[in-house]
Amino acid sequence: MPIDCKMEQEQMRLLLTGEIDHHRAGVLMRQLEEQLDLESPSRVELDMGGVTFMDSSGIALLLKVYRTLALNGGRLTVVRVPAQAGKVLRAAGLQRLFSISYL
Fold this sequence. Notes:
Blueprint: E1 4-8, E2 11-20, H1 25-39, E3 43-54, H2 56-71, E4 75-81, H3 83-92, E5 99-102
Parallel strand pairs: 2-3, 3-4, 4-5
Antiparallel strand pairs: 1-2
Helix pairs in contact: 1-2
């Protein structure tokens, strides 16, 4: 399933849905990289409200987006993180790198 992407001025809003696991992470990574290369946003809001499952592959995905943005002085915000994915993100300590809000 493609990522839903909307640009508003210099902020990109991305909506992730479904499972983020090792089977799907590569496809999502390529789609995210394409969107970031195409639009070059200074801020990205990643909405995870539709994510039903996430494993460590999701951590790698978020770190890749964070690093890509940070290289250009950009900022990542992750919003509407569901309970299961929230446990994974908290265990990884990603809240020290970027803003995360939970459902």
